[in-house]
Amino acid sequence: MNSGRFCPPTRQTPTESPVFPIRFNTVPMPKNSTIQQAIVIGASSGIGLETARLLAARGCRVAVTGRRADRLNALQAENPAHYRAVPFDLTAPDALEHLESAARQLGKVDLIVLCSGTGDFNPELDYRIEAQTNRLNIDAFTRTADWSYRTLKQQGGGHFAAVTSVMGLRGSGAAPAYAASKAYQINYLQGLQQRAAHETIPLYITDIRPGSVQTDMMKGEGHFWITSPKDAARYILRAVDRRKTVQYVSPRWRLIGQLLQNLPGWLHRKM
Ligand SMILES: NC(=O)c1ccc[n+]([C@@H]2O[C@H](COP(=O)([O-])OP(=O)(O)OC[C@H]3O[C@@H](n4cnc5c(N)ncnc54)[C@H](OP(=O)(O)O)[C@@H]3O)[C@@H](O)[C@H]2O)c1
Asked: Which of 225, 222, 198 is nearest to 210 (CA)?
């Protein structure tokens, strides 16, 4: 994919196309939901912010993280009974101390959603862009995923969901480190899922794979099947409720995922 886009180009639609419309008119709150406390990592904007809002609307207490303290504090001020702002940089050496603090403030953590991520087009193959991407999407991701797994295991169970990308299913000439780092995340989560299957406690791992979500991360032009961050959050919590291993956002992006994986190499190289 050398077209300078994060997603394959086609006709542009402003929102979810009406081909398979899914409408969420109410806040879903399954009767059997055991999620009362959650940490949303990367909740200062986009998908993470809406996931935190939806969890709070369900009555959960949510620790929200990210670097932009002003945004997190504003969220906490909206509803101090439900949000706890824990601002920090996930790539900093003391990141786990902040996560420990968030977990302590909640008492018990039922759900951890990892949304923090970065990536950019890299037409000049500037290593600084790739290194920054790898620092967050690979190094910090690994440390955070391992901490989440260990924390939930020590508690006797829980759910860890991480936001990867459809872009992780094939290499990208436009953003090589972004696509490769998302491939790493997808593979790492499969490893944790295999591990969790051998545990004697209820430990669930969900790989959330968005296509195009209308956030600051959605760069370039020619996007299609665009999901709002609110609907992305609903798909995420629905997947968590159903304990799914993989959730495409929106679900029709599974088709693009399959297409990318099965595309002959010669055709992929021409894109
Ligand atoms: N939007 C899409 O079309 C799309 C498609 C596929 C996958 N995704 C994935 O979805 C996830 C969420 O992105 P988004 O679309 O919601 O974009 P976004 O609004 O830019 O959210 C990114 C989040 O990551 C946090 N973050 C970035 N660097 C961080 C750092 N060093 N330490 C801690 N937090 C950091 C940001 O908070 P601060 O800046 O406050 O730190 C922000 O809360 C990302 O992993 C992205 O790769 C998005």
From this structure: 225
